Amino acid sequence: MRLHAGWISPEDQRALVSGLRSVIAAAPLFAPLTGWGKPMSVRMTSAGRFGWYSDRKGYRYIDRHPSGSAWPPIPDRALEVWRALAGSARDPECCLINWYGPEARMGLHQDRDEADFTEPVLSISLGDDGLFRVGNIDRGGPSESVWLRSGDVLVMEGASRLLHHGIDRIAAGTSTLLERPGRINLTLRVVT
Ligand code: MD6
Ligand code: FE
Predict the structure, then answer these.
(1) Residue 126 and residue 171: Cα distance in Å, rounded?
(2) What are the residue boundaries of the structural domains of the chain, listed by start?
(3) Which of 65, 138, 174, 189 suits a disulfide with 129, CB 3.0-4.6 Å?
(4) pLDDT tens digits, one per residue of 42-58
């Protein structure tokens, strides 16, 4: 994994957040259901050709917001980060927006709903710090943790692409970027 700590300047972080306001206005945040039918604590929406979705039928990409509207375009500022750091010849087809309130968390998972695992997944953290845990390709075994802070960019590629990872907790109040306590994580991916 590659962690570019503090790669995005405070000014560019603010520009990213304002781009997200128009995405969320067009494609409101919702709480996807886990395979067990329980709503996730993280609220999500997407931009791009595809959006990530989950319900009792499982995890997948869909080409419309659950309301039926097309997903809005990926904000230019996010595309610029991908083009600078992803090391991919392709542009991302999905920008998943994850919103964590102070109590939200994300269980250990693999990002494996995409067609081509030689393409990286790039994430941008904004707002309060989040404790990111990374484990192994198989479930279980030792893990390591790192705090992801506002402006950090993380790239999972190559041998790290399918490692289990998740967010154990948010440290509310560690950033003043957002209007309320919480954290936003953007993940950009090539889907097809
Ligand atoms: C998060 N991140 O930081 C959750 N996935 O809130 C992810 O699930 C993730 O940061 C793939 C690549 C990078 C990530
Ligand atoms: Fe992930």
Answers:
(1) 12
(2) 2-189
(3) 174
(4) 999 999 999 999 988 88
State the virtual CA torsion across 159, 169, 180, 96 in degrees, nearest 10: 30
**Minimal CA–CA distance to 96: which of 186, 21, 32?**
186
CA 13 to chain centre: 15
Residue with tokens 């039926």: 68
CATH numeric code, 2-189 = 2.60.120.590
Q: Yes or no: say if 178 and 76 are a contact pair by the CB < 8 Å rule.
A: no
Instruction: Read off the tokens for 102.
Output: 């102070």
162-176 average pLDDT score: 98
pLDDT tens digits, one per residue of 99-134: 999 999 999 999 999 999 999 999 999 999 999 999
pTM over 0.90: yes
Ligand 1 pocket mutation pick from 46, 185, 189, 191 by most atoms within 8 angstroms of CB: 185
How many angstroms is it from 21 CA to the middle of ligand 2? 22
Per-residue pLDDT at 60: 95
For ligand 1, the distance from its centroid to the CA atom of residue 166, given in whole angstroms, is 7
